[in-house]
Amino acid sequence: MPTHLTLHDTLTRTDREVTPLDGQTLRFYCCGPTVYGPAHIGNFRTFVSQDVMRRVVEASGTPTLHVRNITDVDDKTIRDSQKAGQSLTDFTRGWTQKFHADCDALNLLRPHIEPSAVAHISQQITMIEKLIANGHAYAAADGSVYFRVSSFKDYGKLSHLEDRELRLGASEAASATDSDEYTKDSLTDFALWKARKPEDGANFWPSPWGEGRPGWHLECSAMILEYLGEDFDLHSGGVDLIFPHHENEIAQSCCSTHGHFAHHWMHVAHLMVDGGKMSKSLGNLYTLEDLAQRGYSAVEVRYVLIYGHYRAPLNFTMHSLDSARQALQKLAKVDKALAASSPSLQISESPGLFQDAWETLLKDLNVPGALGSIFGTLNKLKPAALSPEEAAATRNGLHFMLQALGIILPPVAEESTAEVPADIQALAQQRWDAKQAKDWATADTLRKQLEAAGWLIKDSKEGFTIVAK
Question: Which of these, 41, 62, 7, lies nearest to 306 by C-alpha position?
Fold first, then answer.
């Protein structure tokens, strides 16, 4: 019977047990948000998955030290703060507060340490000085400093890319982000320090190489060294960060210290929307506020974001939010029935009847499998037939699992006995027919019309019911 979480390790491509190097506290780092606007649900898929990982580790009895950074200086924050007519500090502070509010709504545990890039400029400069002294970095004529990729023989080991692919990837990244690539010795070299440019405005800092600002990749390495040391247990982020961001982190960290950096890598797959890629041009970069305007709660959003396995792409739809609402209501109704027999709640240190679900969750954070097991157990349960002691044990075990998943149960919705007008019944039937035809856009439009008229639709496998709001 497993007692510790196992996670797939991106570096070794194997499933490995997650245990602390010091035998006491699991020390891990998560790449945080760039605070130049509201985070969207694609960002939060990664943060929610990391939150479940932390909760499961702690529920297993291992304390954690969770560090997650705030990127408050880069091209985007500088550009948009100037468009907004605000100082970089005021601009990023506002979006950081918004990010925290969204995290709280999604029931994310706050990291134990949340450092910012701007507050750690001196640590980044110190790391650059070490890299130059070690022959791993060089200053260009314009005052920029670059890491010499050819000096680190293990470059590419995380992303498992060949030299040709690394060069191609570096070329694409350069064309998208940098305008001063001609100053580098090699195409694959990346910026550690960017020389001051007129478009930076007042956003620059002094350094031994001239005024400027750190490169984006450097901040994580410097803050990891500051708070977790040369060797730490686990590093996590979205799959889009494997190359070049995490590859660059490994290179600059290992070349400036004597450590091995992260001993385990956890990466979360992309989120799709309606079967396609998220993008501003498609208008599907949903935020929590966008979904709240459509009538969905952050609790329902969290349920959808954790329901797919973290290593598989997850397709987000409005239909999935409707399904999440039904699942949460079912859990809430069972909890209410159990509470009727045993109102006191003392969350146990074991899952009880939900042991199979817990063991499933411990195997590479298999949330969909664990939820399926939970509902399988509940479907066999008859709360009214349980003794107060049995009801208490069942409810405590259920809440052990809910806490590990970070799920907060909503109030049980009251069923309405109001008579449903014929036109509402017809509209609801049209919506159902559209759903069966997989015409999600029409179904969503009709749902909004029904809600605007004061009616909610509850779907099941067999059909639907109509209730007054």
Answer: 41
Segment 216-244 shows an average pLDDT of: 97
393-425 core/surface letters (b: 16 or more CB in 10 A; e: else): bbbbbbbbbbebbbbbbeeeeeeeeeeeeeebe
- The residue segments making up the domain with residue 89 are 6-268
Q: Residue 423: phi, psi to the nearest 5?
A: -70, -35
Within 324-412, strands assigned E span none
Which of 218, 239, 268 is a domain's end point? 268
Confidence grade of residue 53 (pLDDT, cut at 50, 70, 90): very high
Domain count, the chain: 3
Same domain, 234 and 277: no
Cis-peptide into 33, omega within 30 deg: no
- Confidence (pTM): 0.86
> Is residue 80 within a helix (H) or strand (E), and if so which, with residue range?
helix 75-83
358 in Cβ contact with 351 (< 8 Å): yes
Identify the residue whose tokens are 């400093």. Answer: 145
* Spatial CB neighbours of 390, under 8 Å, sequence gap ≥ 6: none
**Share in percent of the chain as helix, strand, coil (round to 5):** 50, 15, 35
